């Protein structure tokens, strides 16, 4: 009886031990499976993701002469022509300065589930530059300091094709090749600038060569306003978008390309009391080059064409009186080029910039000139700018002092919309310091 009890105890213990071992084994298996599941989830690409970026940016600037500008002297364009008072003194020889943080920027990049086999991404970006200038005739401040939309795009990317729609850079502005100046003007007058609503298809012909075709409508900024027109009505009245084509070759050290575009605008729908079908047609051609390694970054850009006003460049278009009393339009021709060379040092990076632009006028016989760079009976002949900067960088913090000198040559307007007589060169020295903290 005693032996039977002992045997029964041993058997019970072994069974209990087996059950415990089985449970432990199952528990370990479950734990391992759970770990594997968590690892798989961790390594699995996120279906939705978003990332904030931007910077706080503050600039102090001093100008030795009155200049054409935007947003409370933040963005200087060209020095104004001589304006003499009763004593023969130049009123525009007065200096100016300001301290602003309106170029502070915020944006978000996001991605979501694939669409028709393409990677889907998007971007929304804004700053506080505003869309309208200070109203000099009242106490109003325009929209300076208020939020302004810069980019709002969605992109579908396949292995060799990308489709982008929304608002982003004018196609003649090349994000990979633009001046590295500290000034917020980003080389304006010499380099195209602004954003437009558009649809763009980019096709890789080879790993290095990409063909881009774009259709866009002016938004910010617009062409000049003709007599009887309203702001940007030339774009609204035209059923034809601007067509742009570009080839870009890109390797690890070299980015280069060229392109052309055709624009057809309709400034007004009524002229001389009659229906107007007059168009403003123009073509533009441009090319660019960039070389970059771990020592140096060198860039160059050139553009020529008609009616480059919407790209914040000099020129625009002229109005002609037709036999029926209506106004027809012809673009003025503008050419521009710039070069920028800078160090690629990650801590202290000096750089220099030089830009030149020329007004080549329009056909004779015009009645009105709708151009940038005109003052009464005087017009710009050419503008050049030279600047030097040093970027002091530490992590996401950046301090950049810069000096620049801009010279404008003014003259009396001749029959072809050019400067001809009483030529006068005036210059503006700008000293500035830019401070940025990025995130």
From TrEMBL:
Annotated signal peptide: 1-22
Keywords in alphabetical order: Signal
Protein name in the entry: Porin
Species of provenance: Halpernia humi
């Amino acid at each position: 009886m005693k032996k039977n009890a002992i045997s029964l105890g041993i058997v019970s213990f072994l069974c209990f031990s087996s059950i415990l071992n089985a449970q432990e084994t199952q528990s370990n298996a479950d734990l391992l499976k759970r770990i594997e599941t968590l690892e798989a989830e961790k390594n699995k690409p996120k279906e939705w993701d978003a990332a904030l970026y931007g910077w706080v940016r503050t600039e102090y600037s001093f100008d030795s002469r009155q200049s054409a500008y935007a947003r409370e002297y933040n963005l200087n364009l060209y020095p104004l022509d001589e304006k003499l008072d009763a004593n023969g003194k130049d009123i525009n020889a007065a200096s100016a300065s300001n301290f602003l943080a309106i170029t502070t920027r915020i944006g978000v990049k996001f991605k979501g589930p694939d669409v028709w086999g393409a990677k889907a991404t998007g971007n929304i970006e804004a700053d506080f530059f505003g869309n309208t200038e200070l109203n000099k005739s009242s106490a109003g401040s325009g929209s300076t300091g208020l939020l302004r939309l810069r980019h709002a795009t969605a992109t579908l990317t396949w292995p060799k094709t990308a489709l982008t729609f929304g608002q982003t850079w004018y196609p003649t502005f090349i994000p990979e090749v633009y001046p590295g100046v500290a000034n917020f003007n980003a080389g304006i007058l010499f380099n195209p600038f602004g954003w437009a609503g558009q649809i763009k298809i980019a096709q890789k012909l080879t790993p290095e060569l990409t063909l881009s075709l774009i259709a866009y409508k002016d938004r910010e900024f617009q062409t000049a306003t003709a007599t009887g027109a309203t702001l940007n009505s030339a774009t609204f009245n035209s059923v034809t978008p601007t067509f742009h084509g570009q080839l870009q070759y890109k390797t690890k050290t070299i980015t280069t390309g060229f392109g052309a575009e055709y624009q057809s605008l309709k400034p007004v729908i009524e002229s001389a009391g009659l229906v107007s079908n007059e168009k403003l047609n123009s073509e533009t051609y441009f090319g660019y080059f960039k070389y970059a390694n771990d020592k140096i970054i060198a860039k160059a850009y050139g553009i020529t064409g008609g009616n480059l006003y919407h790209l914040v460049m000099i020129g625009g278009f002229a109005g002609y009186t037709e036999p029926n009393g209506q106004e027809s339009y012809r673009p003025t021709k503008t050419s521009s080029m710039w070069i920028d060379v800078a160090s690629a040092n990650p801590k202290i990076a000096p750089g220099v910039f030089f830009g030149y632009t020329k007004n080549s006028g329009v056909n004779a016989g015009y009645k009105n000139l709708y151009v940038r760079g005109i003052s009464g009976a005087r017009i710009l002949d050419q503008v050049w700018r030279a600047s030097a900067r040093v970027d002091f960088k530490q992590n996401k913090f950046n301090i950049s002092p810069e000096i620049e000198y801009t010279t404008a040559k003014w003259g009396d307007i001749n029959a072809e919309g050019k400067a001809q007589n009483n030529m006068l060169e005036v210059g503006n020295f700008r000293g500035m310091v830019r401070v940025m903290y990025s995130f």
